[in-house]
Specification:
This protein has 216 residues and is mainly alpha-helical. The protein is built from 9 helices and no strands. 9% of the residues are buried.
Amino acid sequence: MFNNKAEILNQSKLQEYKSQEYLEIVGARLKGVRLLKGITQQQVARETGITQSFLSAVERGKKSICTTQIISLIKYYNVSYETIFGEHNGEYSIEGFSKNESLVVCSSLLRELISEYPSLEIGAENYLKICIYMLLRSIYRENPHNSQKIFSIDYDLAMTKAQKVIKNTPENLLRFIRKSKEINVKTLEIPIHHSGELRTFTYECEQMLCSKGIYI
């Protein structure tokens, strides 16, 4: 029981705050799913009948969404009810969303970007090989039963050299592009039909970069 009008008012404000916070959480999750799927608001509006302006308001936590509309979105995005309305702890995260073949997707995006120039393809391929080598060797050595005789370079030396390659290669490739007379920078682009995959990949990576250690 409330003792006075002030208590009733404070409780009302608290409930209002919690409701707004909930709308923002749900909106952020809906937006996150859409971006991870590489889908625009226009596409959602066209396929579900929900107007773009209303969807935008929902994603910003400005409007609530009815049961029929949320079912339409969940089916369209092909995610579970719990993905949107499950327990929420801490900041919004894309953990739990499918990243099927994400390595294949990012490799194909890079290939699309530089496919006209074999020299760039070789440089990028070697860079990715070194990244994978570092991970493979670091994890491989944790099992004491794995033979280290297959490696010809000491682990610490290999890691030092690999880190140097990883640090310097992007800048070296940029210098090569700028000095090359054969490369037309206007051709370094990803076809528009891959824009969905590009948005999904960049969003996923930037979420990882900005996260507080929940990925690594």
